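Listing S7. Sequence submitted for prediction.
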Amino acid sequence: MTQEVRDDIRATSENIIADARELTKIEERKLDLNATGVDLEKLSEQAAQLASDLAQKAATEKRLVRVANAQDRLKRAGEAPKTS
């Protein structure tokens, strides 16, 4: 895997972790809320947006891992002893 792909995977993972932590905080605030209505609706909208962002980032990460795996396979194939 190239360093660029490794860095992209790491950055994506860090973003996913940050979003997951933020989503957890929002959900905890929703649990602690005594009020309903506008506040709860706003928090629910934020949670839905973050969850959507997380799904997109996870899909991006999945594609990056596939690229990394393909690069590794190509590298191994190029290092294999040639038989004639």
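Caption to Listing S7: primary sequence and predicted structure tokens for the chain studied. The chain has a mean pLDDT of 90. DSSP finds two helices and no strands in the chain.
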